Amino acid sequence: MQIVDRRLNPGGKSLANRQRFLRRAKDMVREAVRNSAGERSLKDIERGGEVTIPASGVKEPHLRRASGGFREHVLPGNKEYLEGDTIPRPQGGSGGGGSEGSPDGEGEDAFRFALTQEEFLELFLEDLELPELAKKRVVEGDASGVRRAGFATQGSPANVALGRTMRNALSRRLALRRPKPDELDELEEALRTAEENDPAEAEALRARIDRLRNRTLRIPYIDPIDVRYRQFEPAPKPIARAVMFCLMDVSGSMTEGMKDLAKRFYLLLHLFLRRRYKHVDVVFIRHTHEAKEVDEETFFRSPETGGTVVSTAFEEMIKVMDARYSPADWNIYVAQASDGDNTSADNDRTAALLMGRVIPACQYFAYLEVGREDDGGPIGFMPRETELWRTYGRLRAEEPRLAMRKVRHRKDIYPVFRDLFRKGAMEEAAK
Amino acid sequence: MSAVRDDRLLFQGADWDFDTLRRIHDACGEIATGELGLSLYPTRIEVISAEQMLDAYAANGMPVLYRHWSFGKRFARHETMYRKGFQGLAYEIVINSSPCLCYVMEENTATMQALVIAHAAYGHNHFFRNNHLFLEWTDAHGILDYLEFARGYIMNCEDKYGEAAVERVLDAAHALSSQGVFRVPRRRIPDLASEERRERERRQHEERIYDDLWRTIPGPRNAPAAKAEEARRRALLQLPQENILYFLEKTAPRLRPWQREILRIVRHVEQYFYPQRQTKVMNEGCATWVHHRIMTRLHEQGRLTDGQYLEFLHSHTNVVFQPTFDDPRYGGINPYALGFAMMEDIARIATAPDEEDRAWFPGLAGCGDAEGALREAWANHRDDSFIAQYLSPRLMRKLRMFHLADDDREEELRVNAIHDERGYRRLRRALSRQYDIGHVDPDIQVEDVDLIGDRRLILHHRVLERQLLEPDEARAVLQHLADLWGYGVLLREVDATTGAVLREHHAGARPGIVE
Where is this region: Disordered (chain A) (predicted)? Predict the structure, then answer.
């Protein structure tokens, strides 16, 4: 008898099969993942987790009998029945169901998948793209690597480029007409036959062989001038980095529900940027009639009162941009959320700042107008266009980088997000 | 319990190490080979974790298996069930191989390890080694190597022809896997030497019985040529053929060699599991009876404490619990319960029979050698024959069995037989049929091929008791079959008694597997 301890064996033996299964069910899982976005809080989305798909899509068919026909069962636990008794047929399922336990795959109604965070996000953000993705590649101090830089005549023996060296040697030997070993062998052979028959010819051959031998000695097989070394040089590695400006109106008219909608949008955007860029900075700027850069907690939590002057937020943003995030070095994304209020006198200034400073500096500007769920009004009423919507609407025609959407309900966030970032969305807007 | 350390005890407390396992194994071995007379393959005990147990579940318990998404699906389901607490994990898994592999879980207590070692390493092991079905259909020495080969071969195919192409063949083969076994041993194809010998013997025999008189007797008129042609075709294609995968492997016109080999692998694996499906009750009954016997003897010898023995009994009674039919927990007859009860019953009839037993089991009753009688039963039966042979009236009364007939043309179910004098034999026959795999599995055979016309493959399902196939699934399977065959396929459901065609399914080949 042997005892083997298998516990230390590498786990995940089923991983390959699991991935195949996942790939097979991918369409359904993708659907489930996207539907789940409406129900979950965004923190959970980032963590991955379980989704449910219908079992029918991954069925393995087998030839088996359907119910019906004449069947017999032997059952244990008779209490009162006598031979010849009749029993009403049980409703729904076989109360007397002695049929052998359901074979593999039957009787399950849905399938649960536990997805890792990576798998989840992959499916979640699949086929979205960042507009103007990584147009600016910048040098980040801490990252450097080496790259090939051709061949050199000097270097360490470890880096000898054999192929190149041999090629040089060959061309040199050809050019200087170094005698080939085959040629010498042939002459030697000829010499041997000549020595027996024709002494004069033998003499001539001998002289020729000597000449060739000398030549062979003078022209080496590999010469130091043939040798080449692979050359490497340190090169800074370009890393694309991005900063995301979150602008939000926090004046009294913004309710908690609206802020929640905005927050969801920001989180999605952040998630998305993080997958595309190695470094993503986030700057939170909130404004009432004056704007301030704050940390995340304050941004979403602490209430504020005051009027609404949107241009202050842009001014604050430009200040931060000038101080820390030069448009030459950073990919800049701006997401603005607001209920659409603005002081009427400020509209022109807002538009000027937006077109003059903000949009030229950034890759993408998304304006999200949040509303209350019950804001729709009676059917048939055109909802009032807000100040900001009108202002931005005029500018949109000339500027494809400006995108705007309205959101009223949690479940709209993800579709709107997908709509903004789906492949080709920018090109369409440009037309 | 006394605080004094008792030297006879196999172990103390719940913890165990490899020495404990070895001690348990050896102590069980003394009883198993000494008192019970079991003969065994060498054993290899492998300690595994819960996650590895889930892995093993997904691969039907096999330590190596080729890759396919369906195993991933199985894994996902078991994992969810386990995580949610709907399902505990098995304490062990045992593989019919030589050496016999027993996986034991690391979470088991020492008593549980003793139980599973007695159960798997002795009970199942003996059954695998001695039951005629396993000897006939499986090759315990070669199976692990074969699986290793299969895995490697299929991986190679994936490299050469792409995962998708291999997956399509495997999907189709899996759909037909239950039609990929031989149910009766095949005639071996004779070699030249034995053919010549037979020919010689036949000639000698003819010479010996030659009588010129026979020549004068008018013979039957020649059969029509078409009949002869058909007979020749059927003989060539070995029709009718129940093993559809075998038939495809040998005769499908457009498969490539590697695709045939994959069909072969799938049917070999299926054939390997075929005996297990036919011996659930016996296999578990044997193992349960053996572990019960060994643990009881260990306790009697003072090598288990009372507490440990009670812990064992607790697990044991859970395993052999049989809910009655009206209990919400009822899910069919528990093979452990029925098997164990029958083994106990056989032992009782052999040693302490009553009048009824003598009348029902004249050969067995009172023979005195319970172990011998059991060993014989384990070696020579499968579930249906075992029940038909050994289910006693006393056990039917004890389990209060009754026989229910469910005819979909009638309003109500009818009780056909109960555990009384009139019912015993009918009850026993019905239960035996319930375990007869020839009766439970639909009987589907390749009937003919239209070689001259459109090469359509024709299959027949012999319909018993009007039990037709599930139409949706039948169509899906038929589609897979047509894809492999490369031409159209027709499945006729034919009533077994009247010969009337009840339903037909068609499928045409899609491109994908064959070009």
Answer: 76-108
Among all chains, which residue has been given the structure tokens 């064996």? A9
| Rounded CA separation B502/B240 (Å) | 20
Return phi, psi of residue B44, to 5°: -130, 120
What count of CB pairs under 8 Å joins A to B? Answer: 264
Q: Are strands B412-418 and B100-105 parallel, antiparallel or unpaired?
A: unpaired
Instruction: Quote the distance between the C-alpha of residue B255 and its chain's center.
Output: 29
**pLDDT reported for residue A43:** 55
Low-confidence ranges of chain B (pLDDT < 70): 1-6, 87, 187-189, 219-226
Residue B242: DSSP 8-state: S
What pLDDT digit, counting tens, does each position of B251-274 carry?
888 899 999 999 999 999 999 999
Q: Domain A240-430 has what CATH class? A: alpha beta
d(CA B421, CA B263): 50
Instruction: Determine how β-strand B412-418 pairs with β-strand A86-88.
Output: antiparallel
What is the DSSP code string of B353-392? --HHHHHH-TTTTT-S-HHHHHHHHHHH--HHHHHHHH--
pLDDT digits (tens, 9 = 90+) for B445-482: 999 888 778 889 999 999 988 889 999 889 999 999 99
Between B181 and A300, the higher pLDDT residue: B181
Q: What is the model's pLDDT at position A141?
A: 47
∠ CA B477-B481-B485, nearest 5°, is 170
Exposed/middle/buried for residue B244 (C-beta within 10 Å: 0-12, 13-18, 19+): buried
- Whether the Cβ atoms of residue B330 and residue B324 lie closer than 8 Å to each other: yes
Phi–psi pair at B428, nearest 5 degrees = -65, -40
A248 bridge partner residues? A286, A337
Q: Roughly what angle, to the nearest 10 degrees, separates helices B335-351 and B280-300?
A: 60
CB contact under 8 A, B473 and A63: yes
CA separation for the pair B169, A338 (Å, rounded): 57
Q: What is the pLDDT of residue A93?
A: 45
Distance CA B136, CA B272 (A): 10
Provide the whole-model pTM.
0.69
Residue among A15, A19, A26, A63 with most chain B CBs within 10 A, to mutate:
A63
Nearest to B415 among A23, A65, A81 (CB): A81
Asked if A14 is an interface residue toward chain B (Cβ–Cβ < 8 A), one would say: yes
Question: In this prediction, what percent of chain A has a pLDDT beyond 90?
Answer: 6
**pLDDT tens-digit map of B203-254:** 999 888 888 887 787 766 665 666 777 788 888 888 888 999 999 999 888 8
Q: Is B349 left (phi over 0), alpha (psi -120 to 50) or beta?
A: alpha
Chain B touched by A109 (CB under 8 Å): no
Q: Higher pLDDT residue, A425 or A357? A: A357
Is the CB of A177 inside 8 Å of chain B's CB atoms?
no
